[in-house]
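Memo to structure team: turn this sequence into structure tokens by end of day. - J.P.
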Amino acid sequence: MDKLTRTGAEEFMNLLLESTDLAGFLQRLAHVCAEELSGPDEVHCSVTVERERRKATMANSSSSAARMDELQYSCGEGPCQDALVTGQLIDVPDLLTDPRYPRYRKAMTGSGIRSVLGIPIAVTAASHALAALNCYAEGPGGFPEERRAMAQELARLASKSLLLAIRVANQSDRTAELAAKVESLTAVSLALGLIMARTGCNPQQAMEELRSASSDGEQELGDVASSMLTHFGRDDPRARLS
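Reply from structure team:
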């Protein structure tokens, strides 16, 4: 594992510091892992992170890795999905002969990829996330013991940086959600004031008008309010509620 001397936990932390968001960090991580694992033949890598049961965030080092990932998701089965969900290393020495994933095996025919290795990346339960490093090689038996050990070590080294990236992303999401709620409440308050000023109704009646418009158009209350404020000055705001 001489190559790993160049890629320690500090380097993964640097990757995180140089990235603007979780997706950017994952993309850098996939490329570093592919570079470390390749030689003499090329290894393609991707990283999958599933946060709070939302759609998985994926990054890849090549179009081959991206294609193999997409095939797994479209088939609903595959070694990398199993590694993500079970938290166990999944090694498929030859996709053409392995009986575990028949739909995936059929779908990948002609792809040129024969070996797949799925390695869970440890993140805490508190992060509400699952993560895995997915590795693909063109020949059968592409991940002998030494290369498997190297991939596992890369996953281990990356885990703390990835956990931090997930926590930052989760916090950013919560901040964005809070900002959106504040913006929506502000729009509603302004819209209610505008309705009352234009019609002379009381706050309860103004809210009923706004709710009626939201229900009729199947729009969120804040969206209706924002639309009304956008058109303020161009037409009668009551027209936006009809």
